[in-house]
């Protein structure tokens, strides 16, 4: 069994309150904005690029499976933070250290799923450390924050750590950050997407 800690409440259906703090500022403390609010400059879909649009200042995914990769820089040790909104029954994900490709990317996935039939919920390190409680309601903005520092992976939902895991297998060491559009029943929105490089461990 892989050593890990799931730090979320085990109460039945406990919603985390929306984050009250402001997002990181681009250009401060090493944070970089990944999205200009108007275009998909710097982003590239592995397949079906028509399923990604910029509407009302957000990146919106809808339609069949597609993954939208941020091509500006690859993540080795990094932080990846975004505000997310997902429809009822929707499914998405935030990939990191992922390979650019068609289909389901090879890489880590921080799950984005509040009420889809897949029981692995928002905040899961998909298929490695799974969270089964619904942490945020449908159709509500929340923040998801990934910290990948060597083999130490932390996932925060609304600034609360729900996964704190050391991947002893070091499955994915370097790759792109990406957003997932899972299926035709899903509509996902992302805004305030931020990236920060972390120093490599010696």
Number of strands: 14
Structurally, how many domains make up the residues? 1
What name does CATH use for the topology?
A: Jelly Rolls
Largest sheet report: 9 strands, antiparallel
What is the ordering of alpha helices and beta strands? EEEEEEEEEEEEEE
| Global structural class | mainly beta
CATH class: Mainly Beta
Multimeric organization: single chain
Percentage of residues in strands: 35-45%
- Report, as a whole number of angstroms, the end-to-end distance: 27 Å
Helix content: under 10%
Q: Tell me the number of helical segments per DSSP (H or I, 4 or more residues long).
A: 0
The appropriate CATH architecture is Sandwich
Per the principal axes of the C-alpha atoms, what is the gross shape? globular
Low-confidence stretches at least 5 residues in length (pLDDT < 50)? 1-20
User: What is the CATH superfamily?
Assistant: Exo-inulinase, domain 1
Estimate the mean pLDDT confidence. 91
What is the CA-atom radius of gyration, in angstroms? 15 Å
List keywords for this structure.
202 residues, mainly beta, Jelly Rolls, nine-stranded antiparallel beta sheet, five-stranded antiparallel beta sheet, 14 strands, disordered N terminus
3D architecture notes:
The chain starts with a strand and ends in a 5-residue tail after the last strand. 0% of the residues lie in helices and 44% in strands. By secondary structure, the chain is mainly beta. β10 and β11 form a beta hairpin. It has strands at 4-6, 31-33, 43-45, 52-55, 58-62, 66-75, 78-86, 92-98, 108-112, 142-149, 152-157, 160-166, 175-181, 187-197. The protein has a single domain (4-10, 28-197), classed as Jelly Rolls. Strands 1, 2, 4, 5, 7, 10, 11, 12 and 14 form a 9-stranded antiparallel sheet that branches. It has a 5-stranded antiparallel sheet with strand order 3-6-13-8-9, with no helix packed on it. It is built from no helices and 14 strands.
């Amino acid at each position: 069994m892989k050593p890990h800690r799931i730090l979320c409440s085990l109460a039945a259906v406990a919603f985390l309150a929306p984050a009250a703090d402001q997002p990181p500022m681009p250009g401060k403390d090493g944070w970089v904005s990944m999205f200009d609010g108007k275009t998909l400059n710097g982003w590239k879909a592995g397949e079906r690029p028509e399923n990604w649009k910029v509407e009302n200042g957000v990146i919106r995914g809808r339609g069949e499976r597609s993954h939208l990769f941020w091509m500006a820089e690859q993540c080795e040790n990094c932080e990846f933070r975004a505000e997310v909104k997902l429809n009822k029954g929707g499914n998405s994900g935030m990939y990191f250290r992922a390979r650019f490709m068609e289909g389901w990317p090879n890489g880590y996935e921080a799950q984005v799923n509040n009420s889809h039939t897949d029981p692995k919920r928002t905040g899961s390190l998909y298929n490695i450390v799974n969270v089964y409680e619904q942490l945020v309601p449908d159709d509500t903005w929340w923040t998801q924050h990934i910290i990948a520092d060597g083999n130490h992976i932390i996932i925060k939902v609304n600034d609360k750590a729900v996964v704190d895991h050391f991947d002893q297998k070091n499955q994915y060491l370097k790759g792109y950050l990406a957003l997932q559009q899972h299926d035709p029943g899903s509509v996902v929105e992302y805004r305030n997407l931020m990236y920060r490089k972390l120093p490599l461990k010696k």
